[in-house]
Amino acid sequence: MTNNTFNLDKEQLIQQSFVQMDKHLQGAEYNQAQKLALTCRILFENGHDSGLAGQITARGEKPGTYLTQRLGFGFDEARVSNLLLVNEDLEVLQGDGMANPANRFHSWLYRARPDVQCIIHTHAVHTAALSMLEVPLEISHMDNCVLYDDVAFLSKWPGIPVGNEEGELISKTIGSKRALLLAHHGLLVACSSIEEACMLSIAFERAARMHLLAAATGKIQPIEPKLAREAHDWILRAQRSAVGFAYYARRSLRNNADCLE
Amino acid sequence: MTNNTFNLDKEQLIQQSFVQMDKHLQGAEYNQAQKLALTCRILFENGHDSGLAGQITARGEKPGTYLTQRLGFGFDEARVSNLLLVNEDLEVLQGDGMANPANRFHSWLYRARPDVQCIIHTHAVHTAALSMLEVPLEISHMDNCVLYDDVAFLSKWPGIPVGNEEGELISKTIGSKRALLLAHHGLLVACSSIEEACMLSIAFERAARMHLLAAATGKIQPIEPKLAREAHDWILRAQRSAVGFAYYARRSLRNNADCLE
Amino acid sequence: MTNNTFNLDKEQLIQQSFVQMDKHLQGAEYNQAQKLALTCRILFENGHDSGLAGQITARGEKPGTYLTQRLGFGFDEARVSNLLLVNEDLEVLQGDGMANPANRFHSWLYRARPDVQCIIHTHAVHTAALSMLEVPLEISHMDNCVLYDDVAFLSKWPGIPVGNEEGELISKTIGSKRALLLAHHGLLVACSSIEEACMLSIAFERAARMHLLAAATGKIQPIEPKLAREAHDWILRAQRSAVGFAYYARRSLRNNADCLE
Amino acid sequence: MTNNTFNLDKEQLIQQSFVQMDKHLQGAEYNQAQKLALTCRILFENGHDSGLAGQITARGEKPGTYLTQRLGFGFDEARVSNLLLVNEDLEVLQGDGMANPANRFHSWLYRARPDVQCIIHTHAVHTAALSMLEVPLEISHMDNCVLYDDVAFLSKWPGIPVGNEEGELISKTIGSKRALLLAHHGLLVACSSIEEACMLSIAFERAARMHLLAAATGKIQPIEPKLAREAHDWILRAQRSAVGFAYYARRSLRNNADCLE
Q1: pTM for the full model?
Q2: For residue range B78-92, what is the model confidence (pLDDT) as tens digits?
Q3: Which residues of D touch B1 (CB under 8 A)?
Q4: What CA dihedral angle connects D20, D22, D23 and D29, to 10 degrees?
Q5: Residue of A nearest to B212 (CA)
Q6: Which domains does chain C have, with CATH numbers?
């Protein structure tokens, strides 16, 4: 049947790709805690190392509960057995130690956004450097279209984010988008799955790095909004995040399998 | 016979070098599948890591067939046993899984260019950042002359490249050159051997990195076209690519020999 | 008791965080020599590698004595058994070999600042590059507020710092601050504990890197002084440095436990 | 005798330092071939990796003979047993394979400079990027003063350097200096010992990186020539190069001891 597909139009080819991907590609079967611990490791290995700063949470089985990493441990130290289950007030329901007090704004955002299952906040270095300029993240590359028209911008820094005020401000500013650039601070990603949140966080920091590299040299050119939205939807299919996450998980586990313990 | 060569002119010395290199230097003896898997690893280790993006193909033994890596696997996971043999319609003839739907433009390019044996397309980060500026790659260093006057430029982004339209556009834009910079996207290299394609891809990303580093600081100065073409032909001798590839293959296999399995 | 904390104001939440952190977080129990050797390793692993340049000292048990690393060894080679105990004149009281003659300005600074227990001086590459511009370090990110209003600036280079003149000049310029940027040279941090000095050195180089990344692209925006000072005091609590240091120590020891020998 | 040294002037302290360093610091005892192989490895590990480009030579025991690495091998593959002994015409006297034809200019330079014992030429990436701007290397940091007023500049690229013309041009341009920046090409260092050449090559690439980092952000400020020359002489003492080289050698051998075989 060679050559048949050379007559198909783009929409037909896209639909055909979806059918094939549904058949041939699977994500990996990890539980929520494993996914969260893996995400910590994956982010550490992809430029999100900033000492003890940053937090990751995912909704627990019971409403108003959240899995999160333990304060005082780096992302590279996360493993299933040292995660915490906390309530909205950050009281520990399961596990030893305490959560990061800055998790407070996660509670606000989960209340405001029932669609959100996972929140990631990091101070990855290129995002942090870009945030000092008080300019929005420029999306001008196909890969970064996963974030096209999906990054809100908090252009003023409200100080250390441990108060309820910051929870309200952040929830309001991100609105219904998946991501937020916080001036003088870092990135926030709020997604419908841990896998998607992990992939978008990697994309965010890479986009910030590319923004800095390109803008140091010349003028970043805009891309066609219609094509950018098409790419956004193509990359953001749930299955694609699952497959991407499974890849990064294999890559991380190749070096450090203790994460799943 | 000391001192004799001090009287030779440059052309004589170049010819003498060729004779010596033909005698003393050999490439390594890998089959096509081994070369392709090695190329994936080498590129991953030399800055071409961008998650699951990018594709590599080489012509198979039968006309209209292509070896390629499996969708859902990173370049760092490629090995002989997980490569696919596909036809022009991307139907799998040998192996499990599916090819990247974006391989479609490879089929168009192989049709248009009978001289091409291997195509590499990646989103290496400096190339990707440079591509956001919609400017051509500047070749201004001796090493990069391997690409002198050999990089076409697609200055507008046509959207996700899974349609036949993109196949036509890319084939037409690259013309008879060996390389192409795709705005808001990445690089493409189309060569007469896997070894050459691998070496040119490494050179492309390094040239993009040098372009960004230099242009962030000052004005890149042009080089003399005649000398640049001389360097281009000197570096591009088939044997030189083979020797360079053999070196990078040894370097990769030193850490991960599973690639050849 | 869910939801109760949503009515607390920021100051109440901060105080609550302090109580929880005092209960749940501890630093690690290393002696002075172990902390000093660990600091050398941690700095090496976090961008402070510059060959044999740089010195670290901490006050010894007897007044006028200092622990320091041995000249001719890199930070990556420091271990408890090769540290030296020296007096103010840099005469070796315990250990083999000699101290760096540039330690002289440490003696001056310890005299001038009884509160200082540990001094770190390095030529970390981004700090060193920034220092060539003769501009102060710009603090414009929450994490870097640990250094807000706490970095003095020596804008002229007095030559190689082995004389008593440089000791006087440096002591005078840093005044009562915790840090100093030395033009055409590097960074200096003078703190009340080894842990704090280690954390501030990491923060200094990261801040310099962010300064260069951001300023190459646009104009760094100032942050609100009141909020910056609040963040400064929040991050600088002694316990926080201890917990951060314990984390970096675990990270370093995971790869190289010989440091404690 | 505490406090006595606080009354010494800078010159007295410098002389005292020399006495102490002569007593306490030694270089390592390697033979010429071991030093040359180690230098290849050290350069590879410190940013001088550019595939198969670059050459290193040192004078052999007999006049008109040179030790060099074998063409087709990377710096990371150099070991005592695969080095070559060649004459001025690049004929192999000992060992298998051939030398890089671009070694020709080394022969010219050894003839012109009887003081030179070792020549290193690499295309380290920051040096190579800087060389595209056709501007001299700016020395504006204490550590880089090892190269102060000691870097000549070849501002035009003469093409691939395999001819006798390039040998003449390079010898004439470097004059009596220790280093040379070759536009659109790379760096050259010519020193009285392998150790010094190794240390200056590391310093050169680091200085180029700092030049690019700083100049992308602002205006590099000049340093006081008198102080810079003082620092130059201080850093360049033969013993200091030996001690620095011994440190980098230990660091390299920690990971790969096969270099000495």
Answers
A1: 0.96
A2: 999 999 999 999 999
A3: 89, 91
A4: 140
A5: A217
A6: 31-256 (3.40.225.10)
